[in-house]
């Protein structure tokens, strides 16, 4: 742990580096590549220089997700950590919006001033470099110290963040951040953030004892309590329809959604449902047919990300075509709507690295190619490669 003098020197050194428009390789290495890249993205985002607090939205009316449910199991422990460590503890969703906080008396007012509270939007393109957004971006633990932050209003802070990973699906569900004043910076802060992330992950295990996770992009797969179920493509389609219709469906409507005008008997569908009930036990309700387990799905997460305007998160989730082989009229229509919304989001995206990653997983995404052509300067070698790629499609 650095002394007060050492911390002050560290802060002053970072401030000097921030003012330098071109850093040497040695200086860049001292800052760290993740912080340096974040500074560059923050500059490109054209954040108002007078911004001193994060934009604030109302999250009270949003439907609770699995992360909200897990927090009900561990809020007391997290509050205790905040109070004992003189920190503010915040949990953010996949789009860097804070959904829960607890603060010591020392940090509460400071957190309120900058909207480091429930509903605060800490996306990098809105407030610049911060640990919460950086941890989600890199999907690794992150520390942002003092003037490494983009907004000057939080230069007196030291923040430590760690991603929260679903123990079953292995998807990143959100992030936890521990923040204190810069002169209390401690190299153990990252370990504390990771410990808090593990507390929430254990709570996720507790509240998801009957948990169904559906993957529908690329290779379809269903996991029950973390174990892969052996299912036919038709059974995966049925579960996907029921996940999209949580209120349930009667036999006739489910048959129409699954088969449309194809000549398939009701008896065939009944047999499918009987086999699914054997696999899922009491987790498949009837009259109407509905799923009684905790449901998570990559396509539902992608839809929620688009609803919230989290374009990068949505693109990360949509790695491949949604149920590419399905002939279900209901699922084909839903896929068309999702792809339309995704295409609209792509043409609003500003970060080329995000679009290039999406293109790597979805080579047929011509909308990503067109947006990259718009974003990359004409003289750049990649511009010509993309033009040629587009002509070949």
From TrEMBL:
It comes from Acinetobacter rudis CIP 110305. SUPFAM superfamilies: C-terminal effector domain of the bipartite response regulators. This is OmpR/PhoB-type domain-containing protein. Gene3D superfamilies: 3.30.450.40. GO terms for molecular function: DNA binding. InterPro entries: GAF-like_dom_sf (IPR029016), Sig_transdc_resp-reg_C-effctor (IPR016032). The lineage of its organism: Bacteria, Pseudomonadati, Pseudomonadota, Gammaproteobacteria, Moraxellales. GO terms for biological process: regulation of DNA-templated transcription.
